[in-house]
Amino acid sequence: MAVKDYMRERFLPHIWCAGCGHGIIMGNMIRAIDQLNLKKNDIVVVSGIGCSSRMPGYLDFHTMHTIHGRALAFAMGVKMGQPELNVIVPMGDGDALAIGGNHLIHAARRNVDLTAIIMNNSIYGMTGGQYSPLTPTGKKATTAVYGTDSKPFDVVALARGAGATFVARTTTYHVKEMIDIMKAAILHKGFSVVEIMSQCPTYYGRKNKMGGAVEIMETFQEKTVKLGSKKAEADPELMERGIFVQEIQPEYVETYQTLIVELQEKAQKNRGNRKGKHHE
Amino acid sequence: MKSGTTFIQGNEAIAQGALYAGLQFFAGYPITPSTEIAEILSEKLPKLGRKFIQMEDEISSMCAIIGASLTGLKVMTATSGPGFSLKQEAIGYAVMAEVPSVVVNVQRGGPSTGLPTGVAQGDVMQARWGTHGDHSIITLTASNLQDVFLMTVEAFNLAETYRTPVILLFDEVVAHMREKVKMPERGEINVVERLRTSVPEGTNFHPYLTREDGRLPMSDFGGVHRYNVTGLVHDMWGFPSNDPKVAYDLLHHLVDKIENKADLLARYKEHYTEDAEILLISFGSAARTALHMVEQRRQRGLKVGLLELQTLWPFPRQLVRRMCKGRTHVLVVEMNMGQICQEVRKAVIRPERVYLANRFDGASISPADILNVLNMIRGKGV
Known about the structure:
Chain A is α/β, with parallel strands linked by helices. Chain A has two domains: 3-249, Rossmann fold, CATH 3.40.50.970; 250-280. Chain A is 42% helix and 18% strand. Chain A has eleven helices and ten strands. Chain A has an eight-stranded mixed β-sheet, with helices on both faces. Chain A has a two-stranded antiparallel sheet with strand order 5-6. The termini of chain A are far apart. Chain B has two domains: 4-183, Rossmann fold (3-Layer(aba) Sandwich); 269-377, 3-Layer(aba) Sandwich (Rossmann fold). Chain B is 39% helix and 19% strand. In chain B, the strands form three sheets. Chain B has a seven-stranded mixed β-sheet with strand order 3-2-4-5-7-6-13, sandwiched between helices. In chain B, strand 14 (329-334), helix 12 (339-347) and strand 15 (354-358) form a beta-alpha-beta unit. In chain B, helix 3 (58-70) runs parallel beside helix 4 (81-97) and helix 11 packs across helix 12. The longest helix of chain B has 18 residues, at 145-162. The N and C termini of chain B lie far apart (50 Å). The chains are: A alpha/beta, B alpha/beta. At the A-B interface, strand 2, helix 3, helix 5 and helix 11 of A face helix 3, helix 4 and strand 9 of B.
């Protein structure tokens, strides 16, 4: 199907600024879903608050736009309620790692089968350009007029450390790679974290004199390399892209289902035993 | 669950009531004095093929039940004071997105950490106004465990009927005491199931288009209708809108669907009210003390009665106004600084006749506490 067949055209135009990277991510998410031949009725997209979180509204799936930072907690309930559904959770960098940091690490620890897409544009866009926990050190924002004073999270290391069983990073420049990673993340049975570097020319780009969308995307090309490339060893400033973690571990909801089956079988056996005694 | 007579704790009566009502998913976080509810359900739910999760905090527990409710399940969370504060934003989301859900708050002393093991009824106003913005909400309470069971079932019924979060506002004494409860047979108490849309696949389903009877049929996530749910002001499609007309209509709908039904939603009990010259109004464990006092005074010939409120919100204004009419004195008995007393004063014709007998120090109110106030207002001194 065409990309537009997955969209609610009634709800367009979208709210994103010209040059924003979030549309690229939305388009690629649709392409990944299309290539995987998933049914629309089997997909739930749950978001929090922020520019990124407006994505579900435009998509013709079961969609939920919730409260700031808590998308993964709502998604947890959806997944436990209907485990057969594919639950995708697009989040912004502030949404996922500042106010929502606790839910991210616990979803990773439980290894619940959700796909977390962290759309990292290094800024709070919806509120007008404040720094986030992913804003690189020294960069400017409306609440960091002298430059940020602390280190950003390394999402890959954080997700891996918390127990995520699929961890990947890519950028809006690397479109083909993004589609492949999204497909692998959606198919992965367990908690998947995909960090996608996205551009915010309106706030982050302008505040830091980085040029327009094209210029920022070019930095994604120049300052990142494929995972395991020799260039990264030579230059620690380069950021690696690719799939960092991909392993199979017991999944939370499946494990709980197994417990239910065990308990019910045990109860049935006990009932059987009691009946047997009665006949004696 | 077996029917028959049992001797159980208040928190277990809540858990049993929820199971009777068809609870399918519970998410919670440990907090005194409500923890037993989570403990009991963690054991019982998986045995019944239903689900329990201990979330990472109070906020995520509320969020998780909303997510699960949208997949078609009956859901509940349970907490106490500080946890109830943390849940407020997500409760507002459930109000706005009209998601059926039940939230138990076993009250303890506050504010802040307060008196974790002390009894209090200080969250009455928080249950009504804890989340921001104009809205309405249903809040039920009870004073004995048979009624705790009944009100818990009722909470699920009202949550499904009105597509709203319902607060079960119990207190530490009721939750931790043990009492005889007669477990009803299946079918003995009415259990309301979710109203699902009859709109067929391929036809437009409007998740927020109110039916003529005021109800909004739902469609489960994963079903044939795909729609948007948001905490933003939204139109009949569930899509965000800034249109003042849309905002006006939505807010009116959210408030009116409950406030206009205040009489219908009023659950209460009358004890010795018919000929009472003095009327006591109370709820929760304070109503037990009030009833004791009434029975004691009746033996001495004092014409005193008790109106026990079980619906706190929407406040049963008409009922209270009618019941207070013609009494010489009205005495509100509660364990806070007068939260229901204020509402009673607003409701009655003669607010100057409404007095307060209260306690808010973590100790249970005693008959003597009430008697002292009663003697004072009758001019008999303390």
